[in-house]
Specification:
- The mean pLDDT is 96.
- The chain is globular and about 55 Å long.
- It has 325 residues and is mainly beta.
- Strands 6-7-8-9-23-19-18-13-16 form a nine-stranded antiparallel beta sheet, with no helix packed on it. Strands 5, 11, 12, 14, 15, 17, 20 and 21 form an eight-stranded antiparallel beta sheet that branches. A four-stranded antiparallel beta sheet has the order 1-2-3-4, with no helix packed on it.
- The longest helix has 6 residues.
């Protein structure tokens, strides 16, 4: 499938028809440098190893940023793969392609889904190293579902060279179980108040405000009751990636720390990325866990959204790259 091009005054990127995935994107920052902050699965373009089954959907093509409708996986009232069918299937383009700074894409759900369609608007901001996005989700019938965004950023090689600034949040939780068996350095089911002191599996607090970690890990944590802004600064390359979104719609943010911890193919210990994922969800456990009572909703932070026919849900957000002073 031929990628769609996004091009504006301060950048150029690619959007894959499969999953409507945005990335890679080169931003032109204030000092004239070109910066590409997004991660791309390292196996996305490589030949299939002998004896391995071909990858499809999200696993074949994961990159950059994409919407998850619904967010997560696990048992559900209706069948869908991890992060929803739109993350795995081909989208259609509905603009006339005459202006590469603006894309309008749509995915139509299968007839048995409670959702009818999701539209994705991607706009390069003239005069700025920034992209504004908007989602429009239309329901076929009333339902409650988790929803999320999935920006995934590449990690620098030097431990601690990426500074994560979370902004204000009410409380944080680690996943109730290991995210990857034998390769999660976090204490399961722990609560924390700052990224600089997250309980570790060995009983010693870990500073997750500086990545990558020196040790291999595959970890997931949820910041709950967020203000709707996250900043990630690459200290070696001198730029900051700033994500702004409507926290009234997505009141949590997951941090997926993929630090070479997954050894099975195709991960093969070579995936280093930070997923910085605004969500209305209970971790990435999907529809059943997010719509049922859970430790996040019990503390007053929503983990699912209500969808009604004739009342599309719209969500705007922005990604911007700044120079570090």
């Amino acid at each position: 499938m031929t990628s769609w091009i996004l091009q504006w005054s301060h950048g150029q990127g690619m959007v894959e028809p499969s999953g409507a995935m945005l990335g890679p994107v080169t931003f032109i920052v204030a000092d004239g440098r070109q910066v590409q902050p997004f991660a791309v699965f390292p196996w996305a373009k490589e030949a299939l190893p002998p004896g391995q089954q071909a990858l499809t959907g999200l696993m074949a093509n994961g990159r950059g940023e994409w919407p998850c409708v619904p967010f997560g996986g696990g048992p559900a009232p209706f069948e869908h793969p991890i992060h929803g069918w739109p993350a795995h299937k081909r989208w259609q383009r509905f603009d006339d392609a005459s202006d590469p700074a603006h894309l309008h894409l749509r995915y139509d759900f299968p007839p048995d889904s409670p959702l009818a369609s999701v539209e994705r608007f991607i706009d390069g901001v003239d005069g700025e190293a920034a992209i504004r996005c908007r989602l429009k989700v239309t329901a076929r019938r009333a339902c409650e579902l988790p929803l999320g965004l999935h920006p995934t950023l590449r990690l620098p090689e030097r431990p601690g060279a990426l500074r994560v600034t979370a902004g204000a949040f009410d409380f944080g939780l680690t996943l109730p179980r290991e995210h990857e068996a034998g390769a999660d350095v976090l204490q399961p089911g722990a609560r924390f108040a700052a990224l600089s002191g997250v309980p570790g599996a060995a009983g010693v607090p870990l500073d997750l405000s500086r990545l990558p970690l020196a040790q291999h890990t595959e970890s997931l944590l949820q910041l709950c009751g967020v203000e709707g802004r996250m900043t990630v600064s690459n200290l070696d390359e001198g730029y900051a990636f700033v994500l702004d979104w409507d926290a009234a719609v997505l009141p949590s943010c997951l941090l997926w720390i993929s630090n070479g911890g997954r050894q099975a193919w195709p991960w093969s210990g070579r995936h280093y990325a930070l997923g910085m994922e605004p969500v209305c969800s209970y971790f990435d456990w999907g529809v059943a866990a997010s719509t049922a009572p859970n430790p996040v909703s019990a503390r007053g932070v929503a983990t699912c959204l209500r969808f009604e026919p004739g009342q599309p849900l719209e969500l705007a957000y922005q990604m911007k790259v700044n120079c570090l002073s």
